[in-house]
Design brief:
Helix content: 10-25%
Number of helices: 4
Number of strands: 9
Strand order of the largest sheet: 8-7-6-3-2-1-9
Structural class: alpha+beta
């Protein structure tokens, strides 16, 4: 599985992240992984892999400054990276030549616009805002007003190494 290399200057601002993005590393349970951002890097660990190898579960790792980091001075990159059993868990799937994770969000429907306009015209301002807050907080109970949309987001990731890097320039 060969990932597409990031585009320097548009997808990454870091020369190191650009070089690291052209990898074809294969994940293994227990190994570290590094998410490549614009110029930062975030550590993850692989906690599960599907039999076909195209679905990987990762968990974020903790990263704390080493005790001697203050001796190094500002701009240090001295980090203690440790597994975090309470870290964020993400499921990645190999799709369209990249590792991707799915997110979901609600979008309003045409019925929402009609109900919103109608309620605004005949409800008091307080009742209108109460209705609007209630429906927004309980979207799953109003499928005619909100539809659930799924989205696949690419994640540039290097398996085999858990690294944290903070770009102090931003």
């Amino acid at each position: 599985m060969k990932q597409k290399q990031s585009k320097l200057g548009t997808q990454t601002g870091s020369f190191m992240n650009w070089i690291m993005s052209s990898n074809s590393s294969i994940p293994e349970i227990g190994m570290g992984a590094t998410e490549l951002h614009w110029s930062d890097r975030t550590p993850w660990e692989v906690i599960d892999i599907a039999n076909n190898g195209k679905k990987v579960t990762i968990r974020s790792m903790s990263h704390d400054a080493l005790p001697n980091a203050s001796e190094i001075g500002s701009g240090h990159q001295a980090w203690d990276i440790q597994p975090n059993p309470n870290g964020e868990v993400r499921i990645l799937e190999w799709k369209w030549n990249a590792w991707r994770y799915q997110t979901s969000h609600h979008e309003v429907t045409e019925q929402w616009d009609k109900a919103n306009d109608s309620n605004r015209s005949y409800m008091s301002q307080d009742d209108y805002w109460e209705w609007r807050c209630y429906t927004s907080d309980n979207k799953e109970n109003f499928p005619e007003l909100f539809k659930l949309k799924h989205q696949w987001n690419p994640m540039r990731i290097l398996f085999g190494r858990a690294e944290y890097y903070y770009d102090w320039e931003f």
